[in-house]
Amino acid sequence: MQRYASLPRLEQAQVRHCPEKQILFARNIHLQIIYWTLAPFTILCSAVAFIGFIALAYFYNCNPIETGQITETDHLTIIFARDVLQPTPGLFGLYISCIMSATLSTLSSGMNSMAAAVYEDFIKSSMDGRITDHQATLVNKVACLSLHFSAKFIAIVVIGGVVSTALAFSAESLGGILRVTISVMGAISGPMVAIFVLAMFFPKTGFWSCLISFIVSNIIMVAICMANYIEDPYGDLFLPTNSSITGCQSRNFTVRQLPPYDAHYGNQETMYISRFAGVHSEKVGSIL
Question: Quick check: pTM over 0.85?
């Protein structure tokens, strides 16, 4: 991503330190990969968005939150899949297994990437050629425990796994994994994207100015996210549905009442800084 983001056109992407034929071949392969993955990625994102519309139409006459079947909007997709797939034996179990396998695959690849990034950025320079790339790969995967340097690197994956697991458990008390993902990723990725844009258009920018602005912007965005979680100005925001006795099949339900203020703009009694929506975190972080 850094290679392509730092170039004005995809045609200029190339692999350095290789013969000319290998450069052309690698560049063509990279371009083909990008072009062939754009369409599936677009279809996948469209399908995910379309599932939300289908779930809204499916539960329009009986909101499962109002009936007490679920407590968070993040559970809508799961209960929707259960109602639709459960009549076919084994299909709902296949759906759950696909979710678990995709989650574990993403988690394992992310932990390996994190370990490799930490090694390349902070540890490789101190080795000074005393360890080969093959040994570094084994060390990062904790597959070669007999190496002299293994004790120094095992903590990379272990600490990363512990922190990731702790964050997963803490997401439940923060209002749902979707809200946490949008806010945290937006707050962190905003300053990071700004650094790449700054390097592309202003390559002579000083190191310390970038570092200080990056740290300050991250601190400000984290403070905004914490204020948003503590005061929760959009806690009363929801889309009204058309729940009825017929639609809920005679189940008891409690219709939620809209607050006396316009919930789209947040609770006016909260701090103004806490009313920054999570979807705008990336833009605000980039500007800062």
Answer: no
